From TrEMBL:
All copies of domain DUF7041, residue ranges: 44-127
UniProt superkingdom: Eukaryota
Name recorded for this polypeptide: DUF7041 domain-containing protein
Organism phylogeny: Eukaryota, Metazoa, Ecdysozoa, Arthropoda, Hexapoda
InterPro entries: DUF7041
Length: 180
């Protein structure tokens, strides 16, 4: 039976093609070529042995910017960017990945193995936190990194002033009073 309305038939065909294109490009239906291309454009920083929490914060921002939300994709990106000494700490997870929560598992293991414990950070903070040869601003930044709570600024400033040579404490105290 011939089409009674050729314009309507053409419109239906166009809508079907548009629907097929949308379904083909949906996040769960992308072909492996598209996924591989997306992976190749993500650049993660080198793993930070001294501060894995900061490294994961950077990695997660990169994932957000590149709209990577799939657990397996996150896991794959992390495992591909780890150096040999680090990947050995999670070798079992890489060789036999979990079925679910792969990314969380590898993140937790890396933090457990490489991150400094809160107790150790607090101990170092209370012992001065400063390293010799650093500028006062670097000592203060280091003390802030060691602080267990961002709301402990008054304690950090008190410890910081105690670290400074007696000759400059009055100047810093006066600066703090006019700054606050």
């Amino acid at each position: 039976m011939p089409d009674s309305n050729p314009d309507l038939t053409a419109q239906v065909r166009d809508l079907q093609q548009q629907l097929e294109a949308l379904l083909t490009n949906a996040p769960g239906n992308r072909d492996e070529t598209t996924r591989t291309h997306t992976r190749a454009t993500v650049h993660l920083p080198k793993f930070a042995h001294s501060n894995p929490q900061l490294w994961f914060a950077q990695v997660e921002r990169s994932f957000r910017l590149h709209q990577i939300i799939d657990d397996t994709d996150k896991f794959d990106h992390v495992t591909l960017h780890l150096e040999e000494d680090v990947v050995l700490a999670v070798e079992d997870l890489v060789i036999r990945p979990l079925n679910e929560n792969k990314y969380v598992a590898i993140k937790n293991r890396l933090l457990q193995n490489f991150a400094e414990s809160p107790e150790s950070k607090l101990r170092r903070l209370l012992q001065g936190g400063g390293k010799s040869g650093l500028k006062p601003s670097e000592i203060l930044a280091n003390m802030r990194r060691l602080a267990p709570d961002p709301g402990s600024e008054n304690i950090i400033l008190t410890l910081f002033l105690a670290e400074m040579p007696a000759s400059i404490r009055p100047t810093l105290t006066a600066w703090e009073e006019t700054d606050g």
